[in-house]
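Entry type: protein chain
Record version: 2
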Amino acid sequence: MGITIEDFYCLELGTDADYAKARRIDWSECEAIELRALVDAHKLIYRQEQEQDSNYVDRYVLNEIIVMYQENLRRIEIETYFLKAKGNPDRRIEFNAKLSQAKNRRFSEFIQLKKGRAVCPFHDGDNPSAFSVKNERGKCFVCDWSGDIISFVQQKHGLSFMDAVEKLG
């Protein structure tokens, strides 16, 4: 029989599982706040670099940092959701169903596509060739945004990962 995460926390902290889980939830929520602030700060720097027409490599590196922070934020939000759902397996099943539904949504439901191209909703401009959708992954060649439908809804509506899944699911 394996050791559960709650047992591990109890052994490490010398306390009960509920207390350890509550501490982990608190840490996760604080970490999510910090990551959101980092994402916002780096997006601001990215926009400034874009306005100054700076080196493409610098903007590419900034975009990769933003994507990394967003992936970490997504992972922490999911972990927090499941920590709060522990003891309620229906909540996990419900989340998995909503996530599956969200992933099956199409970009064409949110933006007008013509031959896989659209005007990017994340910046000013009217060039429909700037935003491309292929295999349900969007990419803007002007502002360098890229992602799936969930990250699209997150960015467009300023939502967290969990809220975007709820909206799409």
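Comment: The domain at 106-169 is CATH 3.90.580.10 (DNA Primase; Chain A).
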